Amino acid sequence: MKIKSYLIVTAVFLFVACSKDEPFIPDDGIPVIQAESYYTVLKEENITYAEGLSHDMTSTSAFAIPLKLDLYYPDNNSVNRPIFMFIHGGGFTGGTKTKPEIVEMANFYASRGWVFVSIDYRTTEELGTIQGMTQEEVLAYYRGIAPREWIVTALQGAENSDQVGQATAMYLAQRDAKAALRWIVANSKTYNINTDFITVGGASAGAITTIALGISNQKDFRDEITISDDPTLSTTNLNESYVVRSMVYFWGSNIKLDVFELVYELNQYDRYDRNDPELFMGHGTAEDPVTPYEEALELKGIYDSLGIYSKLVTLLKPNGDPAGHGAWNAIVDGKGLSELTLDFLIDRQKLNLE
Fold this sequence. Notes:
By secondary structure, this protein is α/β, with parallel strands linked by helices. The protein has helices at residues 3-16, 100-110, 135-141, 148-157, 161-186, 205-215, 255-264, 268-271, 293-306, 337-349; strands at residues 32-33, 41-54, 63-74, 81-87, 115-119, 193-203, 246-250, 278-284, 310-315, 352-353. β2 and β3 (63-74) form a beta hairpin. The longest helix is centred in the middle third of the chain and has 26 residues, at 161-186.
């Protein structure tokens, strides 16, 4: 840019952007975000983004329940905001969108100019009980909740009914996370979201779901069940599509894609390709039987083989010891998880930084 042009733009910016309500909007269409906390954060809680079929401990047939998200956004007049959707962990057996560490991250990002969405999704808590049921009774009980072939595979590989429920809930979480992202796209104009700058992230089970969301095809975890079997699919903005630009993964794995490949007799490179989103991974080397560090190394190897940019940050405790599962307080080079991921997104998405 010529010096004269730069001075003109700078003068205009200083004149019209002296308040938080009038951010500078460049002509390149790339969102402007703040390096430090700057905006007041506004929040809308428990927005229904879709419905899903559910069971309780006494139901004999599935019934519809609302699926909720919380939305955080900056108090400004920007019409060009990047979006970060976050998926909580909990082993597919529980968890909440209001986990304090997620709320803290939401405020961190929204105060810098992002729209940040934290979603709830169905877990085993919405699957009732199948204790003592035969295989055919289980298939009938879960009809419309997960594909028959998925449940059959779970029944074959599980040692008990709890494991069957957990494997089934893996499908539900994916179906719901994709529905939440389609809701975001459908409502992008309401919240001034630029859907060219979509980030999806998660921790533990949420990271597993993040990887499967970013890597799988749009039709996967969506079209395996018909609307006649699951009428709530009609609430999930099926006509919307999305492109995930970046993924953020904390102590996760690609196990869900492994299961998907097993169920549908696919191979690894039916899933991954050179157009997949770039990936930030935060994972510690301390012993972790749930999501070992080797899972991150495997993903890094897949990404490297395809020539897709990824970054693996080996997480440490504040005292410098190796971190393990749930390392929300990890510190690397003096930075926490929010700062580390912020640096990654600014750099890789080429965001305009003030």
